[in-house]
Amino acid sequence: MIRIVSMWVILFVAGAAQASGAQQARARVLYDEGRAEFVAERYQSAYDRFREAYGLSSSPALLYNMAAALEALNRPGEAAEKLRAYLRAVGEEPNRGGLEARARILDESQRQLDVEHLRRERPQLLALDAVERRGRRRGLAIGLGVGGGVVAVGLALGLGLYFGLRGTYPDSSLGVQRATP
Known about the structure:
mainly alpha, 80% helix
């Protein structure tokens, strides 16, 4: 936790140089308040302070801070977006690969939360999906059965016509016999 907070200070100071004097001072106050809220585990308040500070200073470090607060609020999809915005804003980042991997993990966490939400809120949709998949398999089996039947009947008719239209039949004891009308 202390390592994250100290990283925030370094990143904030580097990005705060972009803001004007009054905005920079207000952004610094908001950042300090946000950091205190984060340490006190009041993550929504911390996020709000970081977001407001970012609006004043546009310091990329605040995007990172917002991502951390959103992750703590169990909003991984938004946290991943803020992390990607941070990476776009800073350009060069020594831990870029680790942060990109973290964003992918957050995306997967969001997908899992979405599925859990669907299971709780709309279980009938998941049931319909399962029925639809079973129906597709049943339809495939019926289609293959009908198709196989058509091929078998066609083969039987073809062989029947082939052998039924011949005028002579071989007979081993009497030789070749003519068909009677």
